[in-house]
Structures are given as C-alpha cells and as structure tokens.
Amino acid sequence: MTPTDPFSDLAAALSGELNSSETAGVRIDASRRHRTGAPEVIYGKGKSAEQISVAIRRLIAVEGRALAARIDADQAATVELALGGEPIELDFDPVGRTLIARAPDRRPPSTGGRVGLISAGSSDRPQLSEAAAILFEMGCETRSVHDVGVAGLHRLVAPLRQMSTFDPDALVVAAGMDGVLPGVISGLVAIPVVALPTSTGYGFGGEGVGALTTMLQACAPGIAVVNIDNGIGAGVMAGLIANRAAAQRSS
Amino acid sequence: MTPTDPFSDLAAALSGELNSSETAGVRIDASRRHRTGAPEVIYGKGKSAEQISVAIRRLIAVEGRALAARIDADQAATVELALGGEPIELDFDPVGRTLIARAPDRRPPSTGGRVGLISAGSSDRPQLSEAAAILFEMGCETRSVHDVGVAGLHRLVAPLRQMSTFDPDALVVAAGMDGVLPGVISGLVAIPVVALPTSTGYGFGGEGVGALTTMLQACAPGIAVVNIDNGIGAGVMAGLIANRAAAQRSS
Amino acid sequence: MTPTDPFSDLAAALSGELNSSETAGVRIDASRRHRTGAPEVIYGKGKSAEQISVAIRRLIAVEGRALAARIDADQAATVELALGGEPIELDFDPVGRTLIARAPDRRPPSTGGRVGLISAGSSDRPQLSEAAAILFEMGCETRSVHDVGVAGLHRLVAPLRQMSTFDPDALVVAAGMDGVLPGVISGLVAIPVVALPTSTGYGFGGEGVGALTTMLQACAPGIAVVNIDNGIGAGVMAGLIANRAAAQRSS
Amino acid sequence: MTPTDPFSDLAAALSGELNSSETAGVRIDASRRHRTGAPEVIYGKGKSAEQISVAIRRLIAVEGRALAARIDADQAATVELALGGEPIELDFDPVGRTLIARAPDRRPPSTGGRVGLISAGSSDRPQLSEAAAILFEMGCETRSVHDVGVAGLHRLVAPLRQMSTFDPDALVVAAGMDGVLPGVISGLVAIPVVALPTSTGYGFGGEGVGALTTMLQACAPGIAVVNIDNGIGAGVMAGLIANRAAAQRSS
Amino acid sequence: MTPTDPFSDLAAALSGELNSSETAGVRIDASRRHRTGAPEVIYGKGKSAEQISVAIRRLIAVEGRALAARIDADQAATVELALGGEPIELDFDPVGRTLIARAPDRRPPSTGGRVGLISAGSSDRPQLSEAAAILFEMGCETRSVHDVGVAGLHRLVAPLRQMSTFDPDALVVAAGMDGVLPGVISGLVAIPVVALPTSTGYGFGGEGVGALTTMLQACAPGIAVVNIDNGIGAGVMAGLIANRAAAQRSS
Amino acid sequence: MTPTDPFSDLAAALSGELNSSETAGVRIDASRRHRTGAPEVIYGKGKSAEQISVAIRRLIAVEGRALAARIDADQAATVELALGGEPIELDFDPVGRTLIARAPDRRPPSTGGRVGLISAGSSDRPQLSEAAAILFEMGCETRSVHDVGVAGLHRLVAPLRQMSTFDPDALVVAAGMDGVLPGVISGLVAIPVVALPTSTGYGFGGEGVGALTTMLQACAPGIAVVNIDNGIGAGVMAGLIANRAAAQRSS
Amino acid sequence: MTPTDPFSDLAAALSGELNSSETAGVRIDASRRHRTGAPEVIYGKGKSAEQISVAIRRLIAVEGRALAARIDADQAATVELALGGEPIELDFDPVGRTLIARAPDRRPPSTGGRVGLISAGSSDRPQLSEAAAILFEMGCETRSVHDVGVAGLHRLVAPLRQMSTFDPDALVVAAGMDGVLPGVISGLVAIPVVALPTSTGYGFGGEGVGALTTMLQACAPGIAVVNIDNGIGAGVMAGLIANRAAAQRSS
Amino acid sequence: MTPTDPFSDLAAALSGELNSSETAGVRIDASRRHRTGAPEVIYGKGKSAEQISVAIRRLIAVEGRALAARIDADQAATVELALGGEPIELDFDPVGRTLIARAPDRRPPSTGGRVGLISAGSSDRPQLSEAAAILFEMGCETRSVHDVGVAGLHRLVAPLRQMSTFDPDALVVAAGMDGVLPGVISGLVAIPVVALPTSTGYGFGGEGVGALTTMLQACAPGIAVVNIDNGIGAGVMAGLIANRAAAQRSS
After folding, report:
1. Could you report the predicted ipTM of this complex, rounded to two decimals?
2. pLDDT level of residue B1 (50, 70, 90 thresholds)
3. C36 to chain B: which residues are within 8 Å by CB?
C-alpha cells in the first residue's frame, strides 16, 4: 500500500485543478473521505433547512451518501419536504439526532473494522448513537452495551466479557457525572479507549466538565478524550483505529 | 445521655462568664472539644514559632495535649527550642507535618470508635497521616492501607477485605489525580465514606480540582467530601461518626 | 455482627451466578441496598416514562418499594397512567420532586436512626424534602426546621435547641447564597454535619457555587459536603451514619 | 460647606494650568487628596528603590508625608539608604509592609472619623495593618480586635461589644478561608461594613476566592467588598465614610 | 446616642424572650431594622404568592410597610389578588421589579440621608430602581442620572456636576459591560462609591463578571463592590453610610 | 491634515457649550463620529422600541443615518410601526440583526478604505454581516468569502487569492469552534488581521471561549482580537485601519 | 488469537491466588503489561529515592526492565547511588526526564508497530521524548520531526511528507500556545492523531489550557486528546493503536 | 503595487524549491518578513543559549538582524559569550528583556510608519519596551508616554495632546489592574488602538485577567486586544497598520 501525499489536495488547489465553490454559504470538502479516512459530516445546529439540503445534494452527488448530525425533529421534517421529489432516501434517528441520506440502496463498503461502544448510564445513549452512525458510514462493525456504570461494579462483568469476545479494535466509552468508566475499563483491557464525556450531571462539574476532567486525569493510560457530547469525533477516532487494523488484516 | 445546649458557651459569653483573651494575636477556643467533639487544632501555616508556642502552652494548660498541623521542619525545630525547658513532650511527624505536644505521658482517652484510612496512591499518605493524628486525639482506633488505586482493581481486593474485618464505623478515602477511589469503594460497602481529595495531579484538573470534582459527581451515594488536602477536616468528620457509634455501643 | 465481604456481588458476577440484564437501556442493581446500605434510586431527569416505569416494576419486584427523584409533574402523571392497572401505589411530592412507588402498604423497616434536617432559607426546602424521602426509605426518623439563616442569628436559637433534644445521630444542613449555616452549626454541636449546598443565589458565585466553596473552606471541622442540590446524596450519607449508630444501640 | 467641582483638576489640565511631569516613569497625582479625600499611595510591588524614592520626595514636597504599600524589607532598606541624608523620617511596618515617610514630625490632621478593624484569624493581621496605615494618613481614629472567627461564636461577643462602645462610623472586617465573619457582623450591627477578603486558605476556593465569593453572596445586606488583600482600598472606603460622618459632627 | 448591644436579640432569644415562629416555611426577622438599620426585604424569586403574602402581612403588622424584590408581573398580580380585601396598599414597579406594601398612607420616616444614583447605560436602570426602593424605605433622599458611560467622557460632566450640588453622602454607581464608570467617578470625587455591577454584556466577561472584575481591580480607591445585580445590597450599604452622616448632622 | 484635539468635546462640556440631554434614559453622543471616526451604534438588546425610536430620531437629526445592532424581528417590526409616518427609511437585515435608518436616500460618504471579511464556517455569517453594516456606515468597501475553515486547507486557496487581488487594508476573520483560521491567515499575509471569535461550538471551550483563547495564543503575530460575537467592534477597528490608509492615499 | 478475560486478575485476587504486597507504601501492579498492553510506569514526582528504587527492583524482577518518568537530575543521581552495586543498568534522559532501568542488555521485544512523533515548537520536545520512551518499552518503532508549527505552513510540507513515507499506524502531535497543529494535520491524513497539549504559553489560556481547548474544539475529526504534558499517556494510546495494527500484520 | 500570492512559500515548499532545515530542534522561517510584513522573532523562554545562538546566526545570515524576546540577563550573557568572536553586535535591554543582534551597523530600513505607545502605570513599561523593539525592526517611528492612568484623569491631558501632534497611524495602550485606559482613549481619538493587557494586579482578576476582560468588554469600539504581556504581538499589529498607512503616503 503506497502512502498518499498528505498535500495532494492542497497542491491541486494551488495549481487551480481543485476548486471549492460556495452555495448558500456552504463549501463542501468533497475529497475529505479520501484524504482523511472519514466523510464530511453536516453539522446541523444553526443551519437552515435550505443549507442542509444543499449540502446533502452535493455530498450525494459525490459520495452517494450523506450524514447530518445535531438535527432536531423539525429540521428533519423540513429537509424531508425540501428533498421530497428527489431520488434520495432519508433516515432520521431521533435518539442520536442524526439524519442519513442516500442514493437508493447505497450502502457504505464494509471495511472489517470492529468498534465496541459502552455507556455508563442510560442517558449516555444519544452520544453513542451519534458515534455508531459515523462508524457505519466509515464501514465499521459495532457492538453496544449500556448502563454498566461503576456504582455497581459487578454489572460490568458480563457485558465487558461479551464485548471482549467480539474482539474490537477500539472502544468508545461514554460517561457523564463522574466519568469514571473509561479509566476503569482502560485498566482492564489492552485495547485503545476513546473516552467520550457526556453532558449528564448537575451542580459543580456538571454539564460534562467533571467527566472530562476525570478522563484527562485518568490514572490508567491507554485512553484519549474527545470533547463533551462529541459522538462524531469519538466515532471517527475509533473508526480510523479500527480501519487501520482491518487494513492490515486484509492485506 | 442528656444532649448539651448548643448555645451554652455563647450564653456564658453573653453573661460575661466566659471570656476569650488574646495573646500575640491568638485567641484560644478552650471549650471546643466539649462543645464540638474535637479539640482545637493549631493551623501552623504562616504562624510564627512564638504564636505556635503560645497556643501550645495554652492548650496544654486546658487539655494536657495540643495538635499543630501544617508544620514544616523549621517550625518544628524552633518550637522545640522555645519550649525547651518546659514539661512538654513534642512529637513531630515529618510525613503528615503534624506536631503533637503533651504534658508528660498524657494520652487521650480511648473512645472505641474505629476509622479505616485508605489511600489511592503512595503520594496521598501525608494527608492520611494528618487525618490519623487528629483521630488519635479524638480517641479513635485507626487502620490504614495504601496505594490501592483503581488502575489495577485487583489490588483493592485483599486490603478492602482486611479493612472490612476491622469493622470500621467510617472510612476516610484519599485520592488525587482522577479521584475515583472513594466512589468505587462507596459502591462496595455500607459504611459512610469521607472522601479526601489530594493535590496530586497536573495539567487540567490538577492540584486536586479534578479529584474534588469526581467525588462531588460520584454516582455511588454514601460519600461526602472535604476540601483538597484537608486531612484534619476528614479526620474530624470521621471521628465524630465513629465516636457517635462507639457511644451507642458502650451505653 | 459479621462484616459482609465487599466483593460478594462481584465474585458472584465473575462466577456467572449474578447477572444484570438490560431492559430499555436500564440495568437495575438489585442488591445495592444489601451491599451499600441504601436502595437504588431512579434518577428521573432525561428518562422517558417508559424507562421509569420499567425501573419501578423491577425494583418493586425485588424490594417492594421504589424511589424516583428529579421527577417533574408531567413525568409523574405519565408514569401514573403507565402503571395504572398494576398493584402499585404511587405518591408524588411536588416540592421535593420525588415519586414513591410501593407494593400495597409496604413500608420500609424502621432502623431507629435519627437525622435532623435544617434549612437556611425557605428556598432550600425542595432539596431537604429529597433528602427526607431517601432517609424514610432507609428507615430513619427525621425532624426538620426551616429558614434559620445567619442574617439574624437569634432565629437559630430555638430551632437548634429543639433539634438538640431530638438527639440526632447526624444533621443535614442545606444552604444557598453564602452557604454559611452548616459551618456555624458545626461550631456549636458535636454531631457530624452533612452540608448540602443549594442552587439558590445569583451573580458571582451563584447557582450554589458560592455556597459549595464556603462549605469546603469552613473553619469549623466536623462537616463534609455533597454536590449542589444533591439531596439524595446528603440523605444517604446521613442515613448511613445514623443507621450505623442505631445498629450499635440495638445490638 | 460648598461642594467642589469634580472636574476642577481636569479643567485646569485642559487650560494648561495643571501639568503632571514624569520622572523615572512616575507621574505623581499631587492633588489627589484634595480631589478624592485620600492621598496618593505608592504601590511598591515591582518598583525600583529609585522609583519609590522619587515618588516619596515629590509627595513629601506637596503633602509633607508619603505612604508606600507592598514594600518588602529589602526595598525598605534600600530606600532608607537612598534617602539617607535628607530631612525625611521613615517608619517601616514589617507586618503590614507599609513604609511611612514624613517631613520631621509632620502628622496628618485629625478628622475625628472613627473606624473599627476586626480580623477573623490571626493571619489576617497584615491586611488590617495596611488598612490602619492609610486610615491614619486620612486622619481617622481606629480600634482593632483580632481572631474572632465564627468557629467559636462566643469569642466574638466581648470584642464586638467593646467595639460597639467605640461607636465607629464604619467597620473593616477581614477574613480568609470561608470569609463568613463580615456577613455575620453585618447582621448584628447598623454600621456599614467594608468586607476585606484575605488570601488565607487552600484547596478549592483558596487564595481568598472563597472568602470573596461568600462576601458577595452575603445574605445580610449592609456590606460591600474590596479585592482580595486590598487593605488600602478597604481603608480608603472606610475612611471616606468616617470622614463624611465626622464632617457632619463638626459642622 | 448610646450604642446598642449588638447581641441584644441573641440574648433575648437565648433567654427565651424573643422567638421566631415559622409560617409556610417563612421565619420573619421582625427586629432587623432596629438591629441593622435596614428592614427585612422579601426576596421573591422562587417564592409562592402565598409565601410572599404571608411575609407581607407579618411585616406590615410589625413595620407598617414591606418591600419585596425580584417580583415578576405574574407574582405581583397574584399577590394583589391574595391581599385583595385587606387594608394593604400595593405598588408594583415593573422596571425595578419591586413591590411595596403599606398600611394606608404609611410612609417611612425621613432621615435626611442623601444618596446619588448614577448609571453607565440605560440598561442598568432596573438595578438602580431596586436600590432606590430600599433607600426610600430607609428614609433617604435620592437623586438619579442615567447613561453617562465613559465611551463619551464629556457626557459625564453636566450630570456629575449637578449631582455634586446635591451634596450626597454616598454614591451608588451601576455599570455593566466593562464596568469602568465607578472607578472613574471615584477618581473625581471625595464621596464613598458603592459600585454595582450589572449583568449587561456578552461574550467573555459577560453577565456582569467583567464589570465586577474591573470594579475589584479599580486603581482609584474609595470604592467597594456588591454582587452583580444586587441593587438591594448596594442600596442598604449606601443608606447606612448616608444615615450615619445624617444622624451626625441632626445631633 | 491637522490633528484634532482629543479633548475638544470634553473642554466644550466643561465650559458648558456642549450638553448631552437625556430622553427616556438615552443620552446620545452626537459628536462621536467626528471624535472617534465611527458613528454611535444603538445597542438594541434589552431596549424598548420606544428607546430605540428615540435614539434613531436623534441620530437621524444629527447624522442623517442611524445603525442599530442586536435587533430581533419583533423589535424591528415595532420600531417600523413607531416611525411609520416619519420621513425615515428602514432596512432590517435578519441575518446580521441590524437595522439601518436613514433620511431619504442619505448614503454615507465613501472613504476608499477596503476591508476583507472572511468566515471559517457558515455559522459565522451573522457576525460578519454585523461588521459589514458598520463598515458601510464608515464609508468602507468590503468583500466577503465564507466557509474556508482549516479542516480542508485547500478550500482556503482560491478565496484568499481572490481576496488578495482586492488588496484590502485590513481583514476581519471570524471563526468559532477552535478559532484557528485568523492565525493561519495571519501567517500567510502582510495585512493586519482583526480576529472575531464567534459563539459557535459546544462542550468545553464552547460558546466562543475556545476560539477566543486560540486567537489570543496565536503563534503568528499580526492579529488582535475583539470580544466573542462583537461584529461591531471588529468592523470599527478594521474601518479605522482602512480609513487611515485611505486618507493617506487620497492626500 | 483468543481474547483474554478482562477480569482474570480480579478473579485471581478474589480467589486469593493473586496478591499485591506493599513495600514503603508502593504496591506494584506486576501483571499490568499482560492485562493492558503497557507496563507500569513509576511516576517519580514527589517520590523518595528509596520508593523509586524499591519500585525499580520489583519491576526488574518481573519484567527485566523499568521506566520511571518525571525524574529530575537529583533523583536520578540518588537512585543511581542506591542501586550502585546491583546488576541494573540505568539510563537517564535529562530532556524527557525519564529513567530507564534494565537487567543487563535486556531489550523490550519489537512489535513492528510504528508511531510518528511531531512537535509544533522546539519547546515541546520534552513531552515527545517522554512519549518516545514508553513507546520504546512497548516495542514500537518511532520517527520524530520538530518545530513545524503553523505560523509558517510551508515548514510542515517536507517533514509531513517524510513522515508519510514512514507509514505510521498512529501520530502523536504535541503543541503548546494555540495548539493548532494536531487539528491541521488531522485534516491532511487518514491516520489517528493523539493530540498532546504542552504547558508552553503564557497569559490567558497559558500553561497549556489554550492548547487543550483548541484540540477539544478541533473542527477536523480523527483526533483525541490526553492531558497537558502527559507524554506517557499519549505514548501508551498511540502504542496500543500501533501494536493492534502490527498484530494484524503479523498474524 | 502588485499584491503577493499568499501561498507562494507554500507552493515553493510543495514543489520542493523551498526547504526548512532543522538545527538543534530549531527551524527558521527565513521568508517570514517578506510574507507577513514582520521578521521572525526568537522566543527565548525555555530555549538554551545554544538554540538562541543558532537562531541568531541563521537570521543574521538572511536578514542581517535578529530580535530575541523574553531573554533574561543570564541568557544574554551566555549568548554574548557564545557569539564572542563573530562579527555580530549585541544589544540587550534589561527592561524589555529583548536582545538585538546585527551585522555591523546594519539598521532596518525606515518605513515612515508612526506608532504611539502609552502606558497606564509605571509597571507597564517592560511590555511597551518589547513592543518598541519589534516596531523598530519593522521600520516604524515610535513615541512613548507613561503613567497616565485614569485614577487622575487630568494626568492624561497633556501627554495625549502631545501624542496627537505626533499624528500616529496606530496606538499601543498598555494597562494592568482594571485595564481601563485603552477604552477611555479609544473614546477620545479616531486612531486604531491596540490594547495590551499586562500582568500587573493581584487578587481576583489579577495577573492581567481583569485588564484583558475590561478591554474585551470595552464600550468604546476602535480597540482590539492581544494576549496578556504580549508586547511583540501588540507591536506587530500596530506596525502592520502603520506600515500600510505609510506605504499609501509614499506611493
């Protein structure tokens, strides 16, 4: 496998071969998946339905699929209306607040990468759903277990053993409140852990700040952190790790 | 046992019976042990050797013993010189940085209260030593285990089982860095846990702030927190709990 | 009284005897009361009525009772509908925002533990009500006084004297704004004080941060703190202290 | 008494009558006492001995006296050397770290204003000494009591009653740690309280931040706050209050 | 004028002469005005209309007047209904969000104290209105000028000169955003300045934190600060200063 | 070109020639454009429609034009009603939330200053629109490019080259999230960059704090920062730079 | 390859087979490498030379090698003395402040994992050296480039192209100040990036906080963060990723 | 004047024409002055004398001059020794802590740009000296006035009028403590103000944070901010503004 030149897009832009036009204030990075291993994701918060629709159409044209995150039910409905007559299938997940658009029956290729998803509490599921959505787009297989927080350590036993038999290349572990779970798991397994703090919690250190701090201070190494509620970021990091491992398996 | 009037000292002061004179800027609260269950502690930081000596002499006169905390080696040596010819025995603990003064062979009465002391890392020992010193003054029996942090959960097993056979009335659990240990223990036992964050740790959430936050956000209830490095505070809280229980046993 | 092995549940899980199944993303810790001295509490915030109902049914099956906290009036009404035909009695407290569910006439056993509840201002009552609810589930007797803040110290006299005749094993003292009350009380009595900062207050140090800071910096030892508005946490800590003392009385 | 035009100095500067020359980077505000009721204070921290000496000479020339604050022993010694042969008397207070310079036997006029100074702990004395120094320069009479913190409320009784017989026009109340004292006193007396947080304390809310927060959140009104360790600021505020009252007495 | 014993209420409570009963969780401090120079203020936020009405009735019985702050239009309307048939006149100020209740035509006695009120921007008026309301209850005369912020220094000239001819005993200066005005005024006049930061402003240092910081760091002494938006606190502090001066005038 | 006396307005106010009257709590600074190079802007947030209308009328009388910022659609509609019959044309921009009022066909004079406006993401457009509005009032020509964030560096190439041919005197570069764009551009061009952090972003460092921090820590000099979302401030700074350069060109 | 049971050590401890004794307050986790894929690291800060020597001896006995981090020159010299006559070779790196101890000529096995190390500035080298040390212990091959910060983007071109030909499984990218580099690189390559903020920088957001924030807010996904200056943590995370990939290559 | 392609260096690097070699971990950006209008500055903090000497030699070779900032006296002396026999003249400024190196008698070309430098207090001089040093390297003429803080507004009159006759293209205004000066000046003149907060100040908002906040919240627009103590950054921003204006004058 020949490594790509990291600067090929930049060189193409400098020579004028590659251009990025702007529509409704949106400038799509069409070659992002090729360059960085993950497709561009449309960040829905604060965008108009028109902007989201424009972005979806352009990504569909290039990739056949598009993923929009942080989409609320109203935005989803309006985008559905806007794209009504077009050959685009839409799938809205109200838990993870993601919207998948695809040319008819277009599935992402499967890479063979494997990522385990673990939540400390039932309120951490939306963030894991967001991570699962981008992992699917990146071609990874995922497995999830929920509500295995450390207040009752024994609840972690069976789920983590099952997860272990799945033999994941990476774990995403989401936790709010005291954010203890990723560090405890990192002390039990030899798998890279992507820690995902969630905005669950109240009072001092609430809104995820306490969880983030705990994860940054974790005594057990083998753990790295993304920002609070950043399910996409956790998914892409874990997906890159898993796809790297999968590429070695298949080569 | 008849409950004391919480306001007896205040009433005595209002009627002029109880007065608190000031020497070298120090005003001793001689009735504190009787009123609150714990003797006054001399906080050494920033005090001159003269001020510490004055306070020691006055407490010895009332209680026969005195405990000074946050004493460095220089202060200890100077106080030793100052009190040289007097019938006061001094005992300096360089780890916990406490200085015990006592009239010859004067021991605190034993209450029968039992407190377990647990540290997550070897760098949390000074704070536990400070807690142990005040617990001794309050008449409690203590037992300690060290370096049982959660990065290797199995290391906690034997020490906590031993601690359990000691049947403590309360636990003081000290931890720095991610401060995870008190919450994990609180999820395993039916004993009140006084969580003591220590200023171990660096970077974001360092100096004990991350540990404090974790403890405040702990998912497992049955835990309450004192300020960072406040070994005296943790000890007094645990000592009050243990002495309350011990008083019921003996009554 | 033989101390329990803290790791019995964990050992049972490792040997496969104890399993924790997941329904609707919820995994109940059925043995928590036995292990930690306090029953599991359903944290209602962000949970669907279905999730709350599932959790109630499962806890009722094990314990005969269930306590849900942070429940708003809408959630309470929907849960009432969902559990309509079942032999479960529901009791919603709109002040403390707790919902008690019980198999017909099932009361928690009385332990004889005694906890005093004191608020600095009338706006701190919801948090004390939450604490009272869990203390009732833990079998403790409680007594409450309200609005005895230090802006008029004399208002504290009669209530604290009455409280003293109740001879409590522990106090929960709630305060917002400057959070001064727990420290002042701790300087007057020989009873362990669980300090409960509340999110009353505005401007710099508002939302309970100022109160929390004051309690952590309290000059009078014999006080430990839970997170802002954490009535459940304060209640469980005080309940463990009181039940420990009560167990000694009765043994 | 005719009120002064607040803009007289500014108008004089605009018309060119009043000029402020710069020596060694120092530009003295010679008319400050007349305009604002308090003389200019030389802030010593980070200034060279030469800069301090220049400032002293210029203020002596105008006012006959000069006060420098935040002066350490080394600076004091060097300034003493620099001003050696000149008819300037120097008085260094190592506790409050102030340096008074005066033309021989030049005393500030007495105004009759009365300010009470109260400290919560013995480590708050330096800040009160700084306040006392500027109050002396402003012509006020002061009285001080120390170490009357609220951990033993009865210790406050006699000192505050004595203070009350002094009949002060204003109080400066200094406290570190939890910073509770100013609010408690404000709830007991009808005198304006200038609250002075000090950098005593450690851990969360240490370095005076907890004390500052408590004072800003104080439930008892009749209190206003200056910055941490700002003894000069507290003194000037109290001095203006007292001198205003004294001016009414004498008019 | 004989100074009062600061502890008279406390002594009365200890001897059982003074008692504070609780109704609907509210415990009125009826002797506060006598003790501290300012009447108790009902803090409306989070209180039910019933609680507010109870408090009003009890204060009217003692003082003939009552002031409630932080009252929104809905609360005002409900309280008006609740007190409908009673001989209580109500006056709601929607700008300052204060509600005055009084026995028919009952005015507070006039003390002769004078306080000037100055705002930096037009959005700082509500806080000054709150201050003006309590100052009226304390018997002070007030004068106000608005929108004299330092972005155009010349706009300050005429208003401050007019204020100067009013010869106030104290100033309350309110400012949001950069909070510069109190310090600038303090450098121009010899009157104590109570600085009142307001929650105007956005971005970093918004919500009043920037204004508070500026006031605490003010280079010009003669200024002390209350919490963000604390109009009552600023008013009471200024009122105590002014009433002290006025008492000297009249004696 | 003779430099103006910076104090001419102040001198005029001191001599009584220049006065600033207050209407509905609003005090217009009519000479601001002459003195500071930028007209006064009406900050709409929290102002009533009446206050905004008063300010518009007074600015129109002096300048022929008025710009109000932070105006929402409701305010715009109400002001339109209020000014209905008057010879004032209104133009509301719902993206930048600015409202322009002008005497019929009154355009600001053109200065020849040139400012380039660049956004990192499509959600940063409102802030740039606000900047563009004040730049138009200051007589500058502007050019904008959008959505050129550094996640795909090649997207920056063509837009920045086009911007370069416009030969701007200054750039305003807006970015939220990690706020990286201004520093990267500053390392590529010899033009002063005014960095405008926007409140896009979530979690730790969200609401623009992360962007602000990045810009303050930028390794590439040639960049200065305004507050989060302060489009007016960024526009005025860039406009002053551009108009200074343009004045040199035309002289 | 059969996945290991994550709980094997815990089960062994519960059955009493595995015990962890304590010497001088240190409790070694001898099976950590087997369980988590990385050996235990001795954290030197605040440990005595005796504690470090004890830990080294015990790790040498188990693993043949030991790595201590955060060791200053004094500690290194004292440990060298203490272990003088023993068959242990020591290698101290004053830049990365790591101390390697090994039984004679004992090298870690090579795994074939490849990790690239990139620094933004020359002051970020110590942290990268720490990461390189643990990567060597984990059997990975590393390659480093330095001082390629984004203030001159062109300086990144050649080093990143060279890095690309090394075909690393993971990158560790260290940056202080604005912390921009990891995000820019993440937008150019399809390799997981472990971002390592360093405590370079001053003023607001200094000490690494600004860099950490930027990395958490990074627009380009494919990046996860460790705590400020945590070279060991970054190394272990990258090593786990690389060793996972290498294991697939060799299987 | 034809605008330069912002990407010329990048394109040259991509084609391999421009390379940046690394010596002792230092990678010089030799074309920075041409590209960005300001020469590279050597940041001395934490660099060895060898690294500084290498950087000086390489910059001298390209530019004939080199500027190093944040150099303490020890570093200066060691570098002087290291470069002893070479034809490089060194000039160390102990106030601004800058070290200028130049090939014999090599002066930067004069651009005709004019920048005014103003400090609020005498302790802000080092930061202004740093700014002056880089402005000299950029070819600008500077004029400075000191200690004109707003505590005595009249002191600002004469210095600002003198500054005005200098007719500067930009101002750098440095202030610590409350940081008020830049905003006040910005309200008086039509010149772009680069605000430079300094780390003068103590207590809450000390170390420059209060000054920074004030400047970001400034009510008077026409001001932009650099990081605390960043004299180089303030100088480069002002120099770019001035040189842009000067280029228009001369063209």
Report:
1. 0.96
2. very low
3. 186-190, 220-222
